[in-house]
Design brief:
Strand content: 5-15%
Low-confidence stretches: 409-423, 544-548
Strand order of the largest sheet: 3-2-1-6-5-4
Mean pLDDT: 78
């Protein structure tokens, strides 16, 4: 090996630049070397440059293969599509030595191409540009499925220039652009680009390398789509499994409801027990209501939706008893709806059974009360036994109540407007019969709940009810009128007798007590107090006339008892002042002469009486009762003396 050849081997070993290979020839020429030596050096230089080019090509192909291998490795461990596409664009920019690389994807819905990944880009407009098919270099590549390269974008007339694309390319400052298609089979799904901001010629090897990277990018997109489809299929399978599990749970719930309802029926459960059982199993709130729900009427046997609620009619034989309402569950499984409908059917059966039992019990209760009223001489031991079977409270004091629906005012108004012809009589008779039936049902139910008795009599109802702790006859009458009136939505007037102790031991007292209750009822109607309840003690001096027991002392106490008690405690003379005040025509001036006191004293006493008896004590009705009470008080005092 000559010295000259060794110099070039050293340059190859050091990887010197191309310019360094001219230096040995120049030095030899400067030192006066002969033509043979110069020719050998030129030949050695050319050989060394060929070797250098071969080595450079090998190194470049090695780098390209390494990049392709790394890309394939990324695809094998694909986790995020954007990360893989970004890595491909970065490698394209690095291997081709361009300033910018980017990747666009086709949008089949809009029929154009949009920018997906950019590397080296500085323009926001360029990063968001969209290309129509055939527009710009990328649009041409996407349309023809062939690589295209331009050394000078703005002077190239092979593709259609548009203002938005040219503006975006101009903002980025791109000049030379290479684009290769991303294909899956025969379908183009996008374009991979490499670009420079100066004129440049892309070699065939660079076009092939970018095409290889584009193929990897297409595989990555296809793999990601397959993974997405697989995940979607798995999600569908999971949803299907959830639906299967849910339906299985619904069927289990339906079976559980069936068992629970059967157990309730066998053990004598009630309507609200059924609602509670269905609520627990369906996981919602189920209520039984007698009110009409919603704007439509639920069909018998089928549940209907009302807003966020579901309503199942509780009915039998064309008669509606109410409804089961599932609240706050707008989305209900059809099997759960069938469960609600079956619960409504069970509820209707329970109500029919209860009605039959209730009607039988009403007849028995009515018969016992009829015997107390009409045949008090019957065996009292048998009366007690019958009462015990009906769970009637025989120890507490009882009150006899006479109740009647009172719509006299409404009927009078109707008669004044329409007249009372024969054609209206059947209608009125039918309405009266329906009213009696409704009153009988409500009164019998009240008697059963209060452990008393009830029977239809004299166009109304008679009740024998025990007094509760702290109750008196007047309070019981008011409660009964309010309860029956609310149940019937009609005014019900109730008169009460004085309390009876142990009516079963003294049945002869029941009939007179009923007559007293009827007199109170008639008095309330005469006083135009329809829809109220009262006992004789509530009617003032009129109560003395109506009651079988003339409770004079009680009347006096209720009327002026507070004034009498005040005089007794304070040693005052308010009772005598009231007597003189009424005797003088309620004139303070004449009263002071009768009492021999100052008129201011009379005024002070009158004011004190008003605070004790109430501000209306001088009204005509109250004044009449007070004067009667004063006379009875004076008579009782005289009798005691």
């Amino acid at each position: 090996m000559t010295h000259e050849q060794a110099v070039y081997l050293d340059l190859l070993a050091r990887g010197a630049a191309t310019e360094a290979y001219d230096r040995p020839v120049l030095l030899a020429r400067a030192s006066g070397a002969g033509p043979e030596v110069l020719a050998e050096l030129e030949q050695a230089k050319l050989l060394a440059l060929r070797v250098r080019a071969e080595l450079e090509g090998r190194r470049r192909r090695e780098a390209e293969l390494s990049a392709l291998f790394e890309t394939a490795h990324d695809l094998a461990g694909l986790r995020d599509l954007d990360d893989v596409l970004r890595a491909i664009v970065q490698r394209a920019r690095s291997l081709l030595g361009t300033e910018v690389a980017y990747l666009s994807l086709n949008d089949p819905v809009r029929g154009d191409t949009y920018m997906r990944v950019t590397e080296g880009s500085v323009s926001a407009r360029f990063q968001q540009v969209r290309l129509g098919m055939g527009e710009g270099l990328g649009g041409l590549v996407a349309q023809t499925a062939r690589p295209y390269v331009t050394d000078d974008y703005f002077r190239d007339e092979r593709f259609r220039h548009t203002e938005p694309i040219d503006s975006a390319v101009g903002d980025e400052g791109l000049v030379a652009i290479l684009g290769v298609p991303l294909t899956l089979g025969s379908q183009v799904i996008g374009v991979l680009f490499a670009a420079d901001r100066r004129a440049r010629v892309f070699e065939r090897e660079q076009v092939a390398l970018l095409g290889s990277l584009a193929a990897h990018a297409a595989v990555a997109i296809d793999t990601a789509n397959l993974l997405a489809e697989t995940r979607s299929a798995l999600a569908e399978l999971e949803r299907a499994n959830d639906i299967i599990r849910e339906h299985s749970g619904v069927i289990e719930r339906a079976s559980e409801v069936h068992d629970r309802l059967t157990e309730l029926v066998l053990h004598g459960g009630g309507v609200h027990d059924v609602a509670a059982a269905v609520s627990e199993v369906l996981g919602g709130t189920v209520e039984f209501t007698e009110e009409r729900q919603g704007s439509g009427r639920p069909a018998e046997g089928h549940a209907v939706r009302d807003g966020d609620d579901w309503i199942a009619a509780v009915s039998a034989g064309g008669e509606t008893f109410g409804a089961l309402v599932l609240r706050g569950c707008p989305d209900v499984d059809p099997v759960d709806l069938r469960t609600l409908e079956r619960a409504a059917l069970v509820t209707s059966l329970l109500l029919l059974a209860r009605r039959s039992a209730g009607e039988a019990e009403q007849r028995v209760r009515g018969e016992l009360l009829d015997d107390l009223l009409d045949a008090p001489e019957r065996d009292r031991r048998l009366l007690r036994e019958r009462a015990a079977r009906l769970r009637t409270d025989t120890d507490a004091p009882h009150v006899v109540l006479a109740a009647r629906i009172d719509r006299a005012g409404a009927e009078a108004a109707a008669g004044a407007g329409t007249g009372s012809g024969a054609c209206g009589e059947p209608e009125a008779a039918g309405r009266e019969s329906a009213d009696r039936q409704r009153l009988s049902s409500a009164a019998s139910h009240l008697a059963a709940t209060r452990h008393g008795l009830a029977s239809a009599r004299d166009g109304g109802m008679v009740l024998l009810l025990p007094l509760g702790p702290g109750e008196d006859a007047a309070e019981l009458a008011r409660q009964t009128a309010k309860h029956l009136g609310g149940a019937l939505r009609e005014p019900v007037t109730v008169g009460a007798s004085a309390p009876l102790t142990d009516p079963l031991a003294h049945p002869e007292r029941v009939a007179p007590a009923y007559e007293e209750a009827r007199r109170c009822l008639d008095a309330l109607r005469l006083l135009r107090r329809q829809g109220e309840g009262a006992a004789a003690e509530d009617l003032g001096f009129l109560g003395l006339l109506l009651a079988d027991t003339r409770d004079i002392e009680g009347f006096v106490d209720r009327t002026i008892g507070q004034v009498v008690a005040y005089d007794r405690r304070r040693g005052t003379d308010l009772v005598r002042t009231m007597d003189a005040y009424f005797a003088s025509g309620m004139s303070p001036a004449r009263t002071k002469d009768d009492l021999h006191v100052h008129v201011n004293t009379v005024a002070q006493r009158v004011e004190r009486i008003g605070r004790l008896l109430g501000p209306d004590w001088q009204s005509p009705a109250r004044a009449l009762e007070i004067q009667l009470a004063l006379r009875l008080h004076a008579l009782s005092a005289a009798v005691i003396r």
